[in-house]
Amino acid sequence: MEHMNASAPADETTGPRRPPEAPQSREPREPREPRWLTDEEQRVWRSYLHATTLLEDHLDRQLQRDAGMPHIYYGLLVGLAESPDGRLRMTELAMQAKITRSRLSHAVARLEKNGWVRREDCPSDKRGQFAVLTDEGYQVLRRTAPGHVAAVRQAVFERLTPEQQKSLGEIMQIVAEGLQPDEAGADLPWLR
Prior knowledge:
By secondary structure, the chain is mostly helical. Helices cover 52% and strands 9% of the residues. It has helices at residues 39-67, 71-81, 90-97, 101-113, 135-155, 162-179; strands at 87-89, 117-122, 125-133.
């Protein structure tokens, strides 16, 4: 819930703006009202949600059209291509992609079916596996990368000044660092 406005209807993106009034009871009330978003914070938040949703859809459509794969699969192929020998432990790949291990396992299974990735057992850990980029996967990535880079450039970088690009990078890094704590037991996707 973001901004309190009693007369505003529920919003499909973020849910109701204000919780309904609770019936009178003898139970103690919560000590403080939530710190609702200001109108300007609400505008920024909604702009962020709209832009990221549209951007992800734009990139997914481009990659489906050009390579028959969603954006997340492309990111996995890039992660493998940038790693030594085109291989990464599955847990490292999940961490890079910021996804759960089960989602990664499903994605790698689809990439294996396409012949773009193969799994190898880890000799030092009986439960561990490597994801390995195949030659065919590398060729698909090579063919797909120019169109993907053009889509990213057109959707983001050509619309921003160099100063805005720098600010966007700094802002996103601050947000990501705040959501990725270092302490043990942190609830992060790749640990689930």
